[in-house]
Design goal:
This protein has nine helices and eight strands. The chain has about 260 residues and is of the alpha/beta class. It has one domain: Alpha/Beta hydrolase fold, catalytic domain (Rossmann fold, 3-Layer(aba) Sandwich), CATH 3.40.50.1820. The chain starts with 5 loop residues before the first strand and ends in a 6-residue tail after the last helix.
Length: about 260
């Protein structure tokens, strides 16, 4: 399933449907394809927006969670979005958290799935010598409950990135930035409704991380999905979309009057 990639100045993005903006931020090894089922489902009710995050295109000084957040902020300003339902997976969730803490005014709700920001197991502390595709395959499989989700195409994408020295340096810079940028002391400041959707078999941001997010974010609800890893919107899109649809419907409902 392919979508038209639009361009506005330096920003490249997908924009499908109409309604309240639902903005999706992908993770470190994520791609627009991660959200195909979600875009297709929600474009019937929302303006679904997926910016292409410049994970490997920023200069090394700005290759950080903070640098990505500034990019997202400029993108929102450029496109004049408001009342945004902001969703992030993995590193994208971390960027979403930093953004809502710095610029809460245009964010209507927050959706996190397998988010970093408190704790995560990355690709590992060391990278193999370039050319070790089997290592990359095994690491990619760890993202999912079902290793078959790590298709040859997906493994090739990750392998191509990790086979480029400069890209590896930037990936390590982003991973270290995510570890340093722990948000535990700030999450209580988030006032928007927050939906946490987590794989029960996530080994990168395990279930205890989701429970800690729920404990720290005041107005949050937590949903676990069984037999599901770090990318629920890819691995179990039907169940993921159903949970997200329920959350968006509930926060649209007017408050009950006494």
């Amino acid at each position: 399933m392919s979508f038209d990639i639009k361009q506005d100045g330096k920003f490249k993005f997908i924009e499908e449907g109409e309604g309240e903006p639902l903005m999706l931020l992908h993770g470190l090894f994520g791609a627009l394809s991660n959200f195909s089922a979600l875009i297709h489902h929600f474009k019937k009710t929302n303006l679904v927006v997926v910016p292409m995050l410049p994970l490997l295109d920023l200069d090394l000084l700005h290759t950080s969670v903070g640098g990505l957040q500034k990019y997202v902020h400029k993108f929102i300003e450029q496109r004049k979005y408001d009342g945004i339902h902001l969703m992030g997976n993995s590193l994208g969730g971390h960027v979403a958290l930093v953004h809502i803490l710095k610029h809460p005014e245009k964010i209507r709700s927050l959706i996190l799935t397998g988010s970093s920001g408190l704790f995560e197991n990355g690709m590992g502390d060391t990278y193999p010598k370039r050319g070790d595709k089997e290592y990359i395959r095994k690491k990619t499989q760890l993202t999912f409950y079902d290793p078959a989700m790590a298709t040859d195409e997906l493994v090739d994408e990750v392998f191509e990135i990790t086979n480029n020295r400069l890209k590896v340096i930037k990936i390590i810079a982003l991973a270290k930035s995510a570890i340093r940028n722990n948000l535990g002391d700030e999450l209580t400041q988030i006032t928007q409704p927050c939906c946490l959707i987590w794989g029960n078999n996530d080994t990168i941001t395990p279930p205890f991380v989701a429970k800690e997010f729920q404990r720290l974010i005041p107005n949050s609800e937590l949903h676990f999905i069984d037999q599901c890893g770090h990318a629920p919107m890819m691995e179990v899109p039907g169940e993921f979309n159903q949970i997200l649809e329920g959350f968006l419907s509930r926060i649209k409902m007017p408050a009950a009057t006494v």
